[in-house]
Write a structure and sequence with these properties.
CATH class of the largest domain: Alpha Beta
Radius of gyration: 20 Å
CATH architecture of the largest domain: 3-Layer(aba) Sandwich
CATH superfamily of the largest domain: Type I PLP-dependent aspartate aminotransferase-like (Major domain)
Number of domains: 2
Number of strands: 13
CATH topology of the largest domain: Aspartate Aminotransferase, domain 2
Number of helices: 12
Oligomer: single chain
Strand order of the largest sheet: 2-8-7-6-5-3-4
Distance between the termini: 29 Å
Strand content: 15-25%
Helix content: 25-40%
Structural class: alpha/beta
């Protein structure tokens, strides 16, 4: 899905508050910018064909071997790479509602979707619901499939216990996806990685595109891992603010904000569509939300919110109150 993801900021003018992207927007990246300004000469040379130096750093940080890590151009690149490498399995199951690229990648490589599939995709924590499947349940789920891919892109946005790379690299039935994009709040760099057994990584590397990671992204990734930038200074406080926002939205007649274990959550609006609300907020208040109606299994009344600063969150609540008090006009 090229179009239809969150954070379609590029389609609007005058947006002042962006609740559409799940990525934390308050990160101070000035030190990274300063570092990259000294790295510009690398654009005149080819980068490493397979980001080996960054893979070694991630492996050391994760307590695994370098041949159990594969760096990709964002988690989406990894999704398509896995679908390609395991297309011989032929059948897949996607735990919906969830990120659309699992279904899209399987469609590209000719999978048939069915309940008794060989390969299964799980987003955990899940986008767009914010739910988290306990680690034990994930391991039980893996018993039903030849290969379970667990996308943990939002692992740094929850306090719930999750599986670690070290837990799983001895198994040949589970793959973990990770997102540096989200961990360090750098979506424009397109950095992600896979952790799995050496045999799985070997199969993926056979399908890998040379120079998939550009030179500046590679330099940024190494700097971020080395300096362990904290994208969210106080996760517990941020998640508490998320719950405060959710409670405030639930006090608005016609709005239901659903449970979450992350910084984002689904909402439903009763007497209008999510698209109508989105357009009103964008054009009248400079606020952007995510119309979630294009997630499989959801409806035109679903939208997604990612918590921002307390001040921005209060502005969103007031803007939605204004919309719901004027149903007949929108």
């Amino acid at each position: 899905m090229i179009e239809g993801h969150g954070d379609d900021l590029y389609q609007y003018n005058g947006i002042k508050m962006n609740f559409s992207s799940n990525i934390y927007t308050g990160t101070d990246l000035s030190a990274l910018y300063s570092h990259l300004s000294t790295c510009m000469p690398v654009v005149g040379c080819y980068p490493e064909p397979s980001a080996t130096s960054l893979e070694r750093m991630i492996a050391q940080e994760s307590g695994i071997n370098a041949n159990e890590v594969l760096v990709t151009s964002g988690a989406v690149d990894a999704i398509y790479l896995i679908a390609q490498a395991y297309r011989h399995l032929g059948t897949c199951k996607v735990m919906t509602p969830t990120f659309s690229e699992y279904e899209d990648a399987c469609r590209v490589f000719g999978y048939k979707e069915c309940d008794d599939a060989a390969l299964c995709w799980l987003c955990n924590p899940n986008n767009p619901t914010g739910s988290v499947m306990p680690a034990g349940d994930v391991l039980d789920l893996a018993k039903r499939y030849r290969l379970l891919i667990v996308d943990q892109s939002y692992e740094d946005y929850t306090l719930a216990p999750l599986l670690s790379a070290r837990d799983l690299v001895q198994r040949d039935d589970i793959v973990l996806l990770h997102s540096m994009t989200k961990r360090y709040a750098v979506p424009g760099l397109r950095l992600g990685y896979v952790t799995a057994s050496a045999s799985i990584i070997k199969r993926l590397r056979e399908q890998y595109r040379p120079w998939a990671i550009n030179a500046l992204s590679l330099e940024a990734g190494k700097w971020l891992v080395a300096h362990q930038l904290t994208a969210i200074p106080n996760l517990a406080e941020y998640l508490e603010e998320t719950q405060r926002l959710r409670r405030a939205l639930n006090e608005i007649e016609g709005i239901e904000a659903h449970d979450t274990m992350t910084n984002f959550f689904l909402c439903t609006i009763a007497q209008a569509t999510a698209r109508e609300l989105k357009e009103y907020l964008a054009h009248e208040h400079g606020i952007l939300i995510r119309d979630a109606s294009n997630f499989t299994g959801l409806t035109p009344h679903h939208f997604r919110i990612a918590a921002q600063s307390p001040r921005a969150n209060d502005a969103l609540v007031e803007a939605i109150k204004q919309f719901t008090s004027q149903w007949k006009h929108y």
